[in-house]
Amino acid sequence: MAEAVYGRPEQAGEAARQGSAARAERRRGAAVRAVAVVLAGAGLVGALAPVAAATGARGARPAVTVDGGAVTVDGAPVAEAAGRADRAALDAAVRAMVSPGGSTAALGLVVERGRPAWKGAAGTADLATGAPASPDGRFRIGSVTKTFVATVVLQLVAEHRVGLDDPVERHLPGVVPNGGQITVRQLLGHTSGIFNYTEDASFAFEESAGTLQQWLATGRWRSYQPRELVALAATHPAYFDPGKGWHYSNTNYIIAGMLIERLTGRSWAQEVERRIIRPLGLSGTSMPIDSPFVPGPHAHGYYKLADGPADTTLLNPSMAGSAGAGVSTTADLTRFISALLGGRLLGPAELAEMKRVSPESGQAYGLGLQRTPTACGEFWGHGGGIPGYTTLLYGASDGKRQFAASVNAYDLSDPAATNTAFENLVDTGVCGGRPPAAAPAAPSVAAEGIRAGTGPLA
């Protein structure tokens, strides 16, 4: 297995000693780790656990249902939040993610009816310089990358180059064990049963101070090949027979990226660039293969270590690949989700397939797209996590509001405060700062609904 080191070993070691944020996502151990899972996955309930689990786990939370786009809370219809975005409430929500929420930085954007209604940031972009976080900064988007990749696959479906119900073996012979029984649809919807490679012990670098230090010094520079990650997953038994369950698996989207390359002759990153980034003018978005840099202005990501912060901003994104290597901005993400849900990237048939949530996921996850009913309506999107960064992306079904945010988690020593701040950020963002007066706050996608760990990537 080839390794690529960017810069001299002593530079990598020095980078490991400078600055950092807690992005623990393998939920094994203390309450602090449980909150890290929340920060890694909250907002992507569809990626970690069914929405039903999130909304039904707390008696104090309202029962939110969606029928044909109409939203009810505890049986009562909910109207769209009225008026302009409440900028003061949104500013307070991002500030609360820093204190008492324990993040080094947080930033967000609300777009209403095609126009920015609010953007804001709080905290510090670089602990070494004290530079403030910018609302226009770039960040790693983790598994929001999956929505871009799924869109490309569905475009190829529309071009009759692949079928959703084609067996994977037809296009990638010999790559996936039991590939003759696993379909493209099952890959995109996480119903394949294929083991999630980030749950392998080799990715459990956050389990102890020693393994984390080793990963910071050398492991994060390692270059992975897609076949290598699929082969790693294949050393573990499947979670279930294809189509007989739901389990979030980054391996599914590594395979989807390989499928794109087989069908087009170009890498998944090139196809995302050609089909989505350039047509939409997403100037702050990139899909790196193995470059360790976050281009342009950005807030740094950190781990909190006993001897101080360790900066984890630089890493080889091939550890995530087509499952989570992307970099973007809140402006680009809101433009992307608006274009996707508005039919600019997919035809009606393909968009309907993307939004067809599976019963196995608790009616929460479609094909690279998560469905989230809230007190302010039904939203679609995804969330993501990669060391140092947690991303949220929501788009209203009616197209009137989009919300994107990035959080750099750091000090998770007060789980209750972190959970509360994160829930408030989600609730405030999707409602533009103004929850409907007649309804309770939006149900959290953060706490009980994301109890399953997914490794260092989400």
Can you walk through the features of this model?
It contains 15 helices and 14 strands. The radius of gyration is 20 Å and the shape is globular. The protein has a single domain, classed as Beta-lactamase, CATH 3.40.710. The strands form 4 sheets. Strands 6-5-4-14-13-12-11 form a 7-stranded antiparallel β-sheet, with helices on both faces. The chain is of the alpha+beta class. The N terminus is likely disordered. This is Serine hydrolase domain-containing protein. InterPro entries: AmpC-like, Beta-lactam-related, Beta-lactam/transpept-like. Its EC number is 3.-.-.-.
Task: Please specify the SSE layout and strand pairing.
Blueprint: H1 9-17, H2 31-41, H3 45-48, H4 51-56, E1 64-67, E2 70-73, E3 76-77, H5 87-98, E4 103-112, E5 115-126, E6 131-132, E7 139-140, H6 145-158, H7 168-171, H8 184-189, H9 209-217, H10 226-233, H11 250-264, H12 268-280, E8 302-305, E9 308-311, E10 327-328, H13 330-341, H14 348-354, E11 370-374, E12 377-386, E13 389-396, E14 401-409, H15 415-430
Antiparallel strand pairs: 1-2, 2-3, 4-5, 4-14, 5-6, 7-10, 8-9, 11-12, 12-13, 13-14
Helix pairs in contact: 2-15, 5-15, 6-11, 6-14, 10-11
